[in-house]
């Protein structure tokens, strides 16, 4: 039995020793034996700058009441240490939080009282609780955009946390985010490999040759296949060949076959198959002369070549995919599957999505113009755009607040970045104040898709009225309907 939450929400659980009550309302209770205490299993996603980031949190409200709250990590994990309950956090965002951010940032009333702020916060919180305006973010659609740019895809290593050693959790295909995530990542890395051309190398080949000998004779197989069968003109030989049908390429082809089979049988995340089909069709011809028969244990000792750096990532991701399906291709079509606990960092995902969108909407810019994760004095700016005579400090704000004071704190934080000497001294040097921009996920409007064109980012239409030279712009996220 699982506890299913949305991002940044909470759920109250009462510990009970009455099994009948637990069976009746499982979503509200945790069952505990008289002599055994229920232990909640917390997982740390990362430790950064002395701070620990938990995938979800627990808070003891009373003696037998626990509050479980999600943050901005989505995934699935064991809730209790005895592995009897699991928790799942879905990528669903509430439009009311976005509306609150927009309303506060559009307000230029400097004389608002503490009482009015308190009333604002209370009304907004109540609206969020009763609101049914939610959209489920298509994480795989975001990943497709991120992986379409090789420079952006380099930063995806820390997006995902998987515990392969923990007990697996049985879920439906709809609940499984991990498999499509790995499949999309693998196919895009494979696209980069095929664009450069498959690596050619020497590999061993065994063949039963007629009337000739090549390389070395395999005596044992020669006796079994030819001598015992009176085929005296044949010789079983092993020799080296230089070409594409090497160990690592056969492994990649094997995983590629698993991925294509999965995509064909998954209509949830790949309903619109145009992009993924194009990707598969682009890759397929490169493996036309490459086999797929391989002992996966052979690849464990594979030595990576620094010149073909994409092979390392492709092989690592491929091993994870095969492990997901227990090396059995028939499992790609099953409705019920088992998944290891995993978590995805959504704020980081949003940063990279914005990064990819900026490159897409501004083909004249390169990676050096955007300065992703520009660091100074323990601070890390999401982006410092330096283009021509323009310099803009950009913060990709997925973690939107509904609280009036916290929203203004976020705005002032971005303004503070613009006052750092390292930012001011970054070329080009400009005498005027550096402009600041907050990019946030806006309510979905398919008819009015946002573009992050550089000349339209810091215009009066996007200005935050209460501040000088600070702007905001919303970017549409792909959603599941």
Strand-residue proportion: 25-35%
Helix content: 25-40%
* Low-pLDDT ranges: none
Average pLDDT, all residues = 87
Overall strand count: 24
Query: How many domain regions?
Result: 4
Helix-strand makeup class: alpha+beta
Distance between the termini: 26 Å
Q: Indicate the overall shape.
A: globular
Q: Tell me the Rg in angstroms.
A: 28 Å
Count of helix runs: 14
Describe the structure.
- By secondary structure, the protein is of the alpha+beta class.
- It folds into four domains: 2-90, no CATH class; 169-200 and 245-339, no CATH class; 201-243, no CATH class; 346-480.
- The chain contains 14 helices and 24 strands.
- It has helices at residues 19-24, 95-106, 114-130, 139-147, 150-153, 178-196, 219-227, 247-264, 274-283, 309-324, 346-361, 367-370, 404-417, 421-424; strands spanning 2-6, 10-16, 29-31, 44-48, 51-54, 56-62, 65-70, 73-78, 86-90, 92-94, 134-137, 160-162, 169-172, 201-210, 216-217, 234-243, 336-339, 342-345, 372-376, 379-387, 390-396, 435-441, 470-475, 479-480.
- A five-stranded mixed β-sheet has the order 1-9-8-18-12. A five-stranded mixed β-sheet has the order 19-20-21-22-23, with helices on both faces. Strands 3-2-7-6 form a four-stranded mixed β-sheet.
- A hairpin with a 2-residue loop joins β20 (379-387) and β21.
- α4 runs parallel beside α6.
- The longest helix is centred in the middle third of the chain and has 19 residues, at 178-196.
- The radius of gyration is 28 Å and the shape is globular.
- The mean pLDDT is 87.
- This is McrC family protein.
- InterPro entries: McrC (IPR019292).
- It comes from Chryseobacterium edaphi.
């Amino acid at each position: 039995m699982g506890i299913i939450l949305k991002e940044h929400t909470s759920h109250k659980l009462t510990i009970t020793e009455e099994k009948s009550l637990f069976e009746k309302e499982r979503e509200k209770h945790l069952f505990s034996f008289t002599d055994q205490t229920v232990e909640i299993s917390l997982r740390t996603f990362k430790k950064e700058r002395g701070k620990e980031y938990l995938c979800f949190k627990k808070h003891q409200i009373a003696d037998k009441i626990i509050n479980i709250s999600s943050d901005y990590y989505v995934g699935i994990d064991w809730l209790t240490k005895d592995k009897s309950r699991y928790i799942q956090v879905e990528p669903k965002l509430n439009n009311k939080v976005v509306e609150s951010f927009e309303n506060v940032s559009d307000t230029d009333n400097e004389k608002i009282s503490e009482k009015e702020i308190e009333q604002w916060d209370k009304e907004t919180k109540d609206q969020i609780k009763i609101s049914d305006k939610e959209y489920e973010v298509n994480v795989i659609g975001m990943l497709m955009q991120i992986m379409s740019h090789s420079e952006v895809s380099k930063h995806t290593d820390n997006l995902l946390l998987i515990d392969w050693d923990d007990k697996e959790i049985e879920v439906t295909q709809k609940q499984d985010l991990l498999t499509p995530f790995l499949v999309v990542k693998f196919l895009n890395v494979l696209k980069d490999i095929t664009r450069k051309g498959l690596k050619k190398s020497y590999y061993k080949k065994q063949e039963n040759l007629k009337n000739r000998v090549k390389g070395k004779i395999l005596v044992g197989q020669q006796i079994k296949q030819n001598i015992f069968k009176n085929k005296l003109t044949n010789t079983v030989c092993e020799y080296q060949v230089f070409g594409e049908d090497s160990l690592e390429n056969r492994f990649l082809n094997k995983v590629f076959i698993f991925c294509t089979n999965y995509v064909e049988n998954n209509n949830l995340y790949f309903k619109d198959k145009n992009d993924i089909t194009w990707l598969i069709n682009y890759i397929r011809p490169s493996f036309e002369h490459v086999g797929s028969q391989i002992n996966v244990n052979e690849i464990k000792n594979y030595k990576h070549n620094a010149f073909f750096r994409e092979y390392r990532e492709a092989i690592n991701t491929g091993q994870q995919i095969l492990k997901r399906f227990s090396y059995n291709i028939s499992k790609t079509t099953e409705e019920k599957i088992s998944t290891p606990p995993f978590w995805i960092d959504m704020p980081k995902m949003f940063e990279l999505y914005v990064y990819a969108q900026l490159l897409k909407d501004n083909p004249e810019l390169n990676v050096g113009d955007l300065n992703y994760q520009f660091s100074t004095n323990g601070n890390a700016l999401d982006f410092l755009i330096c283009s021509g005579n323009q310099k803009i400090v950009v913060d990709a704000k997925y973690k939107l607040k509904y609280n009036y004071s916290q929203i203004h704190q976020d705005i002032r934080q971005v303004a503070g970045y613009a006052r750092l000497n390292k930012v001011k001294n970054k070329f080009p040097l400009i005498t005027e104040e550096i402009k600041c921009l907050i990019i946030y996920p806006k309510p979905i409007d398919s008819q009015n898709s946002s573009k992050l064109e550089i000349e339209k980012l810091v215009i009066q239409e996007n200005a935050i009225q209460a501040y000088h030279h600070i702007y905001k712009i919303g970017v549409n996220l792909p959603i599941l309907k």
